[in-house]
Amino acid sequence: MTAPRPLVAGNWKMNGLKAALAELAAIRDAAAAGGAGRAETAICPPFTLVAAAVEACKGSPLAIGAQDCHPRVSGAHTGDVSAEMLRDAGASYVIVGHSERRADHGETNDIVRAKAGAALAAGLAAIVCVGETKGEREAGQLTAVVGGQVDGSLDKGFDPARIVVAYEPVWAIGTGLTPTAADVAEVHAFIRARLLALYGAKGEGVRILYGGSVKPSNAAELMAVKNVDGALVGGASLKCADFMGIAAVYR
Ligand code: PGA
Fold first, then answer.
1. Does the active-site annotation cover 168?
2. Using alpha carbons only, how large is the chain's radius of gyration in Å?
3. How far is the CA of 167 from the centre of ligand 1 (A)?
4. How far is it, in rounded angstroms, from Cα 212 to Cα 234?
5. Residue 219's closest CA among 230, 235, 227?
């Protein structure tokens, strides 16, 4: 199986008022001009901007996603948004199990798996996040934690063609710190082996993104690592120049 097409996805987190659609339009235009080369690009703005972002990116190569979804299709869940609603709004991706959701909202692997399942059922692709804390890494629990998250957040029954895994060490998110290329290679190879165990040969086609303080200055080194099929970008996705500076690795 040939290597999957890389994906560079931006996670805007709780950032972005309507005025930020101008930055999104700049990213759209840069992507349309070939700035991401062979990579696919996506931006996941806050819920409030999803529909407008989809509208703005119609017919362009920039895909739009969301940052979370509820496991159920509809019902009495005040404040929540379902995967079906996101699909209806035109989204094509949804991030599930981001470490900030796991930490701030107590999301367990079971919840993340249910959300990923809901995303797939609604016709979205799910970007499933995993990653260890600094304490877990220092305690030698990296593979136990990440392996448990991969196995627990994915289901054997999922369509591997619509699953993306993002490895985001918690201590690297928003800190400017990154693991060494050798460390990234080791964890991504470990995740790949788990995906092969879950999905057989089709596990080879599941994109494994690296996330955590990716910026234009370190993107080339990180994206060159074996089994790194793109990036999940937080802070640097808010500015077109930074985001496209990362995506330019694939030109
Ligand atoms: P960062 O965030 O790029 O700002 O470190 C990455 C993420 O949380 O997805």
1. yes
2. 17
3. 11
4. 7
5. 230
**Domain edges within the chain:** 7-236
Q: Do 78 and 127 form a contact (C-beta atoms < 8 A)?
A: no
Q: What's the token pair of residue 142?
A: 């990296």
Does 129 sit in the ligand 1 pocket, CB within 6 Å? no
Q: How far apart are CA 4 and CA 169, in angstroms?
A: 22
> Maximum CA pair distance of the chain?
48
Looking at CATH, the fold of the domain delimited by 7-236 is given as TIM Barrel (3.20.20)
Per-residue pLDDT reduced to its tens digit, 177-214: 999 999 999 999 999 999 999 999 999 999 999 999 99
**Strand partners of residue 9:** 42, 232
CA of 76 to the centre of ligand 1 (A): 32
221 is catalytic: no
Mean pLDDT value of segment 42-69: 98
Q: Residues 169, 132: contact at Cβ < 8 Å? A: yes
Distance, in Å, from the CA atom of 104 to the CA atom of 106, rounded to the nearest integer, reads 6
Q: Give me 23's structure tokens.
A: 């930055």
**What's the count of helices (H) and strands (E) in the chain, helices before strands?**
10, 8
Q: Is the pLDDT of residue 1 over 80?
A: no
Q: Atom 1 (ligand 1): residue with closest C-alpha?
A: 234
